[in-house]
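Entry 14. Structure prediction run on the chain below.
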Amino acid sequence: MTTAGKFAHRPLLYCTGAMAVLALVSAVGLVVDERTVLGEAVWLKPLKFAVSFALYALTLAWLIGQVDRWRRTLWWLGTVIVAGFLVPEISAITFQAARGVRSHFNLTPPAWTRPCSWSWAAPRTWAGC
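Output returned:
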């Protein structure tokens, strides 16, 4: 709950918590896992994205809780952002880090080696691009 009795967006707050947990797991991975991809630790990218997404989700949850008009529309928009963009993207990045391969611009066959290509295709398809 935010000040003045207004409520923050609960799915975005859950996303913030999940990203905080992932950031901790990624930080442990940086310490215990010596694998690298293109000269960087494999868990560095999930750590950066988890921190970034946590800050984004927390800020958006707070902002949605502050508005009086369009509350239902913004609630659904926040839910779509979490379920449609943040969760698939961070899942693909973390999956590829656990495998020890590049997550973006991975052009090696077969298609399952590049799940982030699919996550970038979805917004373009939904936007009609």
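The two ends are 38 Å apart (CA to CA).
Filed with the rest of this week's runs.
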